[in-house]
Amino acid sequence: MGNMNRQWRLTKRPVGEDFDDCLVFGEEPIGTPGDDEILVKNLHISLDPANRVWMNEGDSYKAAIPLGGVMEAFCVSIVAESKSPDFIVGDVLYGFGHWEDYTVTDGAGWEPAPDIGAAPFSAHLGVFSVVGPTAYVGLLDVCDPQPGETVVVTTAAGAVGSLVGQIAKIKGCRVVGITGSDEKCTWMTQELGYDAAINYKTESVFKALLKHCPDGIDCHFEQVGDAKVLDAVLTQLNQYGRISLCGWISVYNATAPIAGPSGLANLVMKRGKMQGFIVLDFPERIAQSHTDMRQWIEDGKLKYRVDVVDDLSGAVEALHTLYAGTNKGKLIVKVQDDPLLG
After folding, report:
1. Other beta carbons less than 10 A from residue 60's beta carbon
2. Of 1, 75, 84, 283, whose CB neighbour count within 10 A is largest?
3. Kind of pairing, strands 196-199 and 174-179?
4. End position of a domain, from candidates 298, 314, 333
């Protein structure tokens, strides 16, 4: 272990997607853990749409990153030093950490990583840490799909959406995915088993949903917040339909108000439910999600792909690909390896 800690610090609040000059790359000496603290070595860092929200001045479901603070992220890390009775050197942990090589923490919010079976190390962030449990509870707990029902998913080839669609198929549902390229449509239908896929850039989503959802829509997993798409879903929502709001990425970089859907009245007429959620609201379901997903992967029922950036210095550039939708799979920054992992 060297003496210096590379890191990205937030120096000002971004406007729109112009966050390049707001995050500054530098280094400082690696911190030393005090009593009841640990030093974690960050191995993989998750890049997520919510990263942009955390840069804003106002709080979201968590406190805003303070100016001058190190950029935050979900991480897979290994304990490098420990002065805590709760952790030992070599423990692999999931936690809410930072864009840096090493982090000193009291361990609050850090948990032992689950057994991922024979899956590669990238599956920690590719499936098990955040995106898998998010897909699992957002679909099964919020929407509660039943066999034979129709489920529609936006950002359906993304890290969360692709898992949502596959879990819905495992549960016996008809699944229609919405995405932004023909290549992703092909991947969803030919590799993931979706019943149909819609390219919103080249097709009328309203007409395509009429075609592919002949019995209406029972469950919808929303991540974008595009008013036209959501209105198309609301128009075709079945009685007692359920909508799970996982994200609203269309506004994360917006510099002016964006119009919302106009068809919300149909929720009343159809006695529908639309619920926002954060995976952190379901701590009691995380272990079961890990168990089920590990089994589904071993059985060949659940597939995923990752898009790995091979250096911490490339994190900001990689974040732009996330908002452009050009990444293919869960976007991960590989910070470093560790000999303890073999």
Report:
1. 11
2. 75
3. parallel
4. 298
Structural domain contains residue 124: no
Note if the pTM is more than 0.85. Answer: yes
> Which of 46-55, 112-121, 266-275, 332-341 has the weakest average pLDDT?
332-341
What CATH number does residue 36 fall under? Answer: 3.90.180.10
Q: Alpha-carbon distance 304 to 167, whole Å?
A: 12
For residues 84 and 243, what is the distance between their CA atoms, to the nearest angstrom? Answer: 43
Average pLDDT estimate for 243-262: 85
pLDDT at 339: 67
Domain count, the chain: 2
- 126 lies in a domain? no
The residue with greater pLDDT, 15 or 178, is 178
Whether 276 contacts 95, CB under 8 Å = no
Contact 244, 138 (CB under 8 A): yes
Q: What is the spatial distance between Cα 310 and Cα 158, in angstroms, rounded to a whole number?
A: 20
Same domain? 103 vs 147: no
